[in-house]
Amino acid sequence: MKWKDWVHVTKLDPDKQLKPGDIEAIAASGTDALMLSGTLNVTQENLALLQKQVKAYDLPLVMEPAGPEAVLLQGINYVFVPSVMNTTDVQWLVGKHQSWVRMQKGRIPWDFIVPEAYIVLNPDSSVGRVTKAVAGLGADEAAAYATVADYYFHFPIVYIEYSGMYGNPAIVKAVSEALDKAVLYYGGGINSAEKAAEMSRYADTIVVGNAVYDQGAAVLKATVDAIQ
Fold first, then answer.
1. Who's near 178: CB < 8 A, 6+ residues apart?
2. Has residue 68 got a pLDDT over 90?
3. Could you report the per-residue pLDDT of 108-156, keeping only the tens digit for each?
4. What are the tens digits of pLDDT across the range 144-203?
5. What spatial distance separates the first Cα and last Cα of the chain, rounded to whole Å?
6. Considering the entire predicted model, what is its pTM?
7. Does the structure show a pLDDT above 90 at 52?
8. What is the pLDDT of residue 40?
9. CB proximity list for 20: less than 8 A, separation 6 or greater
10. How far is 191 from 17, CA to CA, in rounded Å?
11. Interhelix angle 218-226/193-200, nearest 10 degrees
12. Residue 224 CA, distance from chain mean position
């Protein structure tokens, strides 16, 4: 199964600790892929440790870097590289990416790189603060960013990121209707089957992260079952 066909992705944060047995339960939940991703305190060391914990399970592994300083390329199926569309700081749109290219000196496996157009909509989230995102967008504004990402920049993924809070389904619906070719990812506050089902009506792919740490892996299977 290629990444365009995934409907459920589990996001694991290298800066957080899973409970014993959680990785086995996550692997058995039916999720389509594991994404190694975080905003704060992500290092090569804790990324490598998390990768070691999960690599024995037969699930695709995605690296989603917060910056060029900590990026895994070995043993990874894809690298999803975010650009924040609604940032006020150009480094989060293209600057970090230029730095990464310079650091890698031609060693980037471009066939495995998937650009993401992030639209960050939780102003109180770490990613919202760090990237200086203008997060208080209405449906029309978010949909316009999505249109620019899809039609103008040709991003293969548009990612609606509420990061820690459940988002506005009307905004996600508007973004979905604005897209043509891009796959729509949604992440933020999905901690129940009901929320997963609601957002999956508009998003192609649902991302579940914090709920795994806050409520345990059992909630993950409920979100998977809700969108099958």
1. 143, 144, 146, 147, 150
2. no
3. 999 999 999 999 999 999 999 999 999 999 999 999 999 999 999 999 9
4. 999 999 999 999 999 999 998 999 999 999 999 999 999 999 999 999 999 999 999 999
5. 15
6. 0.94
7. no
8. 72
9. none
10. 18
11. 40
12. 16
Q: How confident is the model at residue 1 (pLDDT cuts 50, 70, 90)?
A: low
Query: Measuring CA to CA, how many Å separate 23 from each of 56, 58, 172?
Result: 10, 12, 30
Spatial contact of 160 and 189, defined as CB atoms under 8 Å apart: no
Contact indicator for 83, 115 with CB cutoff of 8 Å: yes
Specify which residues 122 forms β-bridges with. Answer: none
Domains of the chain: 3-226 (3.20.20.390)
pLDDT of 41 reads 74
And the tokens for 195? 């929320």
- Identify the residue whose tokens are 């496996």: 109
> DSSP string spanning 110-143?
GGGEEEEEEEE--TTSHHHHHTTB-----HHHHH
C-alpha of 26 from chain center: 17
Residues with Cβ within 8 Å of residue 107, at least 6 apart in sequence:
73
Question: In this predicted model, what pLDDT tens digit does every residue of 18-29 receive, in sequence order?
Answer: 877 888 899 899
Question: How far apart are the C-alpha atoms of 22 and 4, rounded to whole Å?
Answer: 26
